[in-house]
Structures are given as structure tokens and as C-alpha cells.
């Protein structure tokens, strides 16, 4: 005060903003990474600051929290394996994915280089080695690159990837979206917007996941943030403003125990009327399934999960013929996707997981019968 640096703002009016933002931050606590201090060991592992918290969060989702110090060490090893590359988006994610993969598989730098022919590397690592994000300043590490690509039947991309990519056909993709999504999109919005089209072009999987979510849950933008982030408690009543002067009083009355299929009946009072909704309890299903999940026995006939994650795609069905190394499933853990190759050639005898199933390391995904080739 009293200097030429005075802002003219009244401290008594500014101070309440501190309380407001403290409450807002507590509301978003589920998204906190848990990193509350600086980290001097950055000089050893060289993890970029923005990725540090993301990697910590991903590690928790993979069940590797207790191995966080090891992950940081493996990050430095993964960086050396990949050629000591500049670590910016998306190259930093490639290093992080490989580091988590090494921890989950209990691999060191020597193991990776010796077992490169048989390891199911994360897709981001394979795409990097192929050249999908460009050529690193020091070139690609050899013979790692050649072995990874040859084992998957992939050709390397020379030069800038965008230079050889075909032009994106926006008109064709718009027709696809209208055809595939019309039951929801056209009914809800009346048209496919340029925003929809661009979102699909840039992030097709994320876009489809978002649309699937909206198909099931509707437009959740009307929900207040605390209601969206935190479940209602028994007896709690909230007002939902639906727009155009409409509002609903919703009260949670009861939640039944799950049945054998994991279905719970949830009872609400909506403006004084009883509403009953069947809801699938995924946690109950996963808990029940994890106790019975069969493990891969290590033989070529058993295709197992290389790490904890969620099955997001099955590329074959029982009875299909497959070649050794052919991608038969895709596993995801947060932002890391891994294509699972067939461990032998033959016929798919059985598949013991479904899309959406949560699996642990070494859980059996499918069995290949080599006798029916």
C-alpha cells in the first residue's frame, strides 16, 4: 500500500476467494495424484514434471503404488533402451509405458534386450519404434527396432509420418458417424456437428467411449459437480435442475445386495414417487471373478495377460485360426494399451474373458489348440 505497486484491490474482498478455492479443490480430491512435495531425484530419472504426477496416478491404477521408487528407476532404464530420447508429449509417455511394463514383468534393461522377440510390448512402444511419432535425434536403437517390427510383420516409416499419411476423408467419416450413431446423436442433437467430426478424427476411441457413456447415462452436464463425483448417501435428498424451470427432488432410499449376476436394485424417491432402477455392480462382479480367474500355465497354448489391466478388445473368437505373433486381444491400463500376441499358431479353443473384464498379471485370456491346425 502507498506505493506505485498498489493494485487497488481490497484485501477484505479478496480473502474469501481463498476459502472458496480451498473448498473447490477438496471437491476434486478424487483426481489428486497424491504428489504433495517436490522431488530432487528428478536428476536421476529425468521424468518431466507434468508426466510425473500422471505416471504416479497410472501406477496406482495398475496396483503398483508400492513399487513407485522402482518405477522411477525403470524409467531411466527404459529411456536408455529407447535411445535416450527427448521426453516430451508423446515420447515421454512411450518411456513411461515401457517403464511400467518392465516393473509389472519384473524385467531389467538386460532382460528386455535379450527377450525382445517374445515380449508383448505396449502399443505406444511399438508405434514409436515403427516411426509413428517421428525419428529421434540419435536414430532408433538397434537391433531392438528391427526385432520388434519383424516380430509383428510391420514395416518402418521413413521420415516424417504425416508426409506419407493419406488425406483424411471428413465426408466419409461424417457418413459413418451418422450411420453408426444416428439412433442417439440425431435424436439428441439433430445433426453431427463439426465438433463431433473433429473429435472422432483426433481421438476415435475416446470419442466412441464418450458416446457410449452418453447413450447409457444421458447428458450428465446438468448434474452438479458434487453429485457427479460423490455417490448419494442413504436418506440424502438433492435437487436436480433440468433446465427450462424444471427441477426434480431425488432421494436415495435403499440399495439391495447384488444377485448372482451382480445386479442391485436401487430405490429412489423422485418428487415423492418411488423409482426402482436395476444397476450392475461391476465391483461385485470383478471381486467374484477374481477369485475364480484361471492362470496361464506358461505353455505356448495359453495366452496370458502380461500385466494388470482391462480387456478392451478381443480380435478373435473360438474356432478362429491364428498365427504365432498375431494380435488376439488388447489390454488397457489407463492410458497404456498393449496388443496381446498369440503365443503359438493354431485354432482358438476357448476364450475365458470378455471385453470390459479386469485381469491381473498371468491371468489366462484364451487357449490355442495346436492339434487342429
Alpha-carbon distance between the termini? 85 Å
Please, how many helices?
15
DSSP, total strands: 12
Major sheet strand order: 1-2-3-4
Q: SS-based structural class? A: alpha+beta
Explained architecture:
The protein is of the alpha+beta class and 373 residues long. Helix content is 38%, strand content 19%. The protein has 15 helices and twelve strands. It has helices at 11-27, 42-45, 49-61, 68-81, 91-104, 109-114, 123-130, 144-152, 161-164, 170-181, 185-189, 194-202, 204-217, 225-229, 282-290, and strands at 237-243, 246-255, 263-270, 273-280, 302-304, 309-314, 321-322, 327-333, 336-341, 346-351, 358-359, 364-369. The chain has a four-stranded antiparallel sheet with strand order 1-2-3-4, with no helix packed on it. The longest helix has 17 residues, at 11-27. The protein is globular. It starts with 10 loop residues before the first helix and ends with a strand.
State the gist of this model.
Helices cover 38% and strands 19% of the residues.
List the helices and strands and how they pair.
Layout: H1 11-27, H2 42-45, H3 49-61, H4 68-81, H5 91-104, H6 109-114, H7 123-130, H8 144-152, H9 161-164, H10 170-181, H11 185-189, H12 194-202, H13 204-217, H14 225-229, E1 237-243, E2 246-255, E3 263-270, E4 273-280, H15 282-290, E5 302-304, E6 309-314, E7 321-322, E8 327-333, E9 336-341, E10 346-351, E11 358-359, E12 364-369
Antiparallel strand pairs: 1-2, 2-3, 3-4, 5-12, 6-8, 6-11, 7-10, 8-9, 10-12
